């Protein structure tokens, strides 16, 4: 695809609570932003109508004439090979043909779909904490745990757009059943709701405001609450085991951790780095570093644009390591 420096990508970041859109330029700047609530309880048409409304607002901007593609980062599961999505928190979308619908709504522009963890990875590799690293694992630790891979300097989404989904690596062979159907998954131990669940089970109690979130557990852990600290330590151990397994399998040299749970800071990162030294013992895996993500809430949009740009040859970004 022949491109010019001023070419733009329309980015969509689709989740269970919000549908965000932006026009992104070749330096990762968000020129226009649009946001709508996801009608998660609505039927397929209602959710798509909200996506179309976001695209419509972007298309009304003067800069739209410079848009060359649409990049989508969606909550999963996604199947980029089929152009379909089935987000867990959007029950009206099951095998929904999102790529075809967005292609039509955008007037026939090329559309590239990846999972939200892969989008975050593309963003952090292009503009964030994984920049300059040819082999990286990037993770989102929030309501769930997702991730993506950069291998050989290129985004590696895999055939369906889900490669690097570290949240569903099993790290506890006899552990609890996960919502995915597996057992002992990283997500079942390290996601925000599961950190809070375990802290409550171990004796932590919310303050007067009744806040029982992982953020509240983190605050209690910083204040020295032993049950809160133990729950974060358990989450850190699960994350470390998953990172070590990934580093052993594909030789990444950095693991970037973002998402709301990462906001706990050293309550999470301190035990995580300590546990990683315990699990990543082989010489070729022992050097993996853990660092916080840099792009925050913009990562989904920047990454959706970067994934599309790499796939379609925009902005001089390297192509993806596996076709989607």
Topology of this protein?
Layout: E1 8-14, E2 18-24, E3 30-37, H1 44-59, E4 67-74, E5 78-79, E6 84-85, H2 98-105, E7 111-115, H3 116-127, E8 136-141, E9 145-151, E10 154-155, H4 186-190, H5 192-201, H6 214-222, H7 226-250, E11 254-258, H8 266-279, H9 283-286, E12 289-292, H10 299-312
Parallel strand pairs: 1-4, 4-7, 8-11, 11-12
Antiparallel strand pairs: 1-2, 2-3, 5-6, 8-9, 9-10
Helix pairs in contact: 1-2, 3-10, 5-6, 5-7, 6-7, 7-8
Pfam family, one: ROK
Organism: Streptomyces luteosporeus
InterPro entries: ATPase_NBD, ROK, ROK_cs
Fold and architecture overview:
By secondary structure, the chain is of the alpha/beta class. Helix 3 crosses helix 10 (299-312) and helix 6 crosses helix 7 (226-250). The protein has a five-stranded mixed β-sheet, sandwiched between helices. It has a five-stranded mixed β-sheet with strand order 10-9-8-11-12, sandwiched between helices. It folds into two domains: 8-120 and 297-312, ATPase, nucleotide binding domain (Nucleotidyltransferase, domain 5, 2-Layer Sandwich), CATH 3.30.420; 133-293, Nucleotidyltransferase, domain 5 (2-Layer Sandwich). The two termini are 17 Å apart. The radius of gyration is 19 Å and the shape is globular. The chain has ten helices and twelve strands. A hairpin with a 5-residue loop joins strand 2 and strand 3 (30-37). InterPro entries: ATPase_NBD, ROK, ROK_cs. This is ROK family protein. Belongs to the ROK (NagC/XylR) family.
């Amino acid at each position: 695809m022949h491109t010019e420096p001023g070419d733009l990508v329309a980015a969509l970041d689709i989740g269970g609570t919000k549908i965000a859109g932006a026009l992104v330029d070749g330096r990762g700047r968000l020129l226009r932003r649009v946001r709508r609530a996801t009608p998660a309880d609505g039927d397929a048409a209602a959710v798509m109508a909200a996506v179309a409304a976001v695209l419509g607002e972007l298309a009304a901007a003067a800069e739209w004439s410079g848009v060359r593609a649409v990049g989508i980062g969606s909550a999963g599961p996604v199947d980029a090979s089929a152009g379909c999505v089935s987000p867990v928190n959007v029950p009206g979308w099951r095998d929904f043909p999102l790529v075809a619908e967005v292609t039509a709504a955008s007037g026939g522009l090329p559309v590239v779909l990846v999972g939200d963890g892969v989008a975050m990875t593309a963003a952090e590799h292009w503009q964030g904490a994984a920049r300059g690293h040819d082999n990286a694992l990037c993770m989102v630790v929030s309501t769930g745990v997702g991730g993506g891979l950069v291998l050989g300097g290129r985004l590696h989404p895999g055939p369906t757009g889900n490669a690097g989904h570290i949240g569903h690596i099993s790290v506890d062979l006899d552990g609890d059943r996960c919502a995915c159907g597996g057992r002992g998954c990283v997500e079942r131990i390290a996601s925000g709701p599961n950190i809070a669940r375990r802290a409550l089970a171990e004796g932590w109690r919310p303050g007067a405001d009744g806040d029982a979130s992982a953020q509240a557990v983190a605050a209690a852990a910083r204040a020295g609450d032993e049950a809160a600290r133990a729950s974060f330590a358990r989450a850190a151990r699960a994350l470390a085991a998953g990172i070590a397994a990934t580093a052993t399998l594909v030789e990444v040299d950095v693991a970037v951790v973002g998402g709301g749970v990462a906001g706990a800071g050293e309550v999470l990162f301190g035990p995580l780095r300590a546990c990683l030294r315990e699990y990543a013992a082989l010489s070729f895996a022992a050097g993996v570093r853990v660092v916080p993500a840099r792009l925050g809430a913009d990562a989904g949009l920047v990454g959706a644009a970067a994934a599309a740009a790499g796939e379609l040859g925009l902005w001089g970004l390297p192509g993806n390591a596996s076709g989607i």
